[in-house]
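Support case: pyridoxal-5'-phosphate complex. Customer-provided input:
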Amino acid sequence: MARVFNFSAGPSILPESVLKKAASEMLDYQNSGQSVMEMSHRSKVFESIIKSCESLLREVMNIPDNYKVLFLQGGASSQFAMIPLNLMNGSGKADFVITGQWANKAYQEASRYGQANVVASSKDKTFSYIPELDKSKFTPDADYFHICLNNTIYGTRFAELPDTGDVPLVADISSCILSEPIDVSKFGLLYAGAQKNMAPAGLTVVIIREDLIGKARYITPTMLNYKTHSENDSMYNTPPCYQIYICKLVLEWIRDEIGGLEKMKELNEKKAKILYDYLDSSKLFRGTAEKKYRSLMNVPFVTGSEELDAEFVKEAAARGFVNLKGHRSVGGMRASIYNAMPIEGVEKLVEFMKEFEAKHA
Ligand SMILES: *Cc1c(COP(=O)(O)O)cnc(C)c1O
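Agent response - structure generated as follows:
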């Protein structure tokens, strides 16, 4: 069996030891005689899985006690509606920084429910940077202020957080959750589709400050009300059981094999540096995001020739480096180097890029 180096932006690579553990427990989870896929979500054995997933997440991310952790479905994209339905119910206003497609979708969806205000945008340069924020443009009585912390498509991330005062800061952290420590107390709400850095697709994690729960509009569907899931410990209906189980294994891997998020960050910085250093020295390839805002997780790059880009992607795939094609809105290539990508994968990719560059010099 040959495993490839998978640079997919999502669903993406999972740690090999997690996949092996899941495989070994596939037919008989801890003497239950069943797979986690088959068991009742109300069973004692599953209850212990979801409880330990939550307590591991709290431990690894250092989540304060006044925050609830919710295991939901519908992807990060459902949060674009769920957030305004639940939070945009005071002044009915919210602020947005448009740093890419996901941030823009959050903004557009919120516009259906209230007064969504664009504070700044980096659309003028294909979202290759994070715009400077002018505090005088912030809405003082906004119900929340939304950012996308790491921009998966454009490979940028906020180097520092906006100071929103008493306005709750809400962040989409789909593609950077668990990649480095984050001060949860700076946020009112954090959310992530799990398929980038946590688990297979189908699980959405929401971390919400307790005082923001219970403010939903009357029309909010029961399933889209944070209160429903908070009051029922994410078991109002059937949760995505298997994804929660894999998430628990991934969290155990981060805590026990990696050594926590500080260590995870060190590793991620090391990996990203290998790739960025090469891109900065290369005469063929160049990174498309401004240096100051470069993402640790998603690295878009181009050769400057669409033909060469296509040739590179094709040859790379033949050599076992897969899913390197960039998002259609940027073109070129994108290497997503999430937590589970080993350093070796990045080193070998750079070796191959050097070889490709030499051939096309
Ligand atoms: C992938 C991604 C999304 C979309 O997630 P879904 O779970 O597919 O809805 C939203 N925001 C960011 C930052 C992403 O990377």
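The pocket of pyridoxal-5'-phosphate is lined by residues 10, 75-77, 102, 148, 152, 172, 174-175, 193, 196 (CB under 6 Å).

Case will auto-close in a few days if no follow-up is received.
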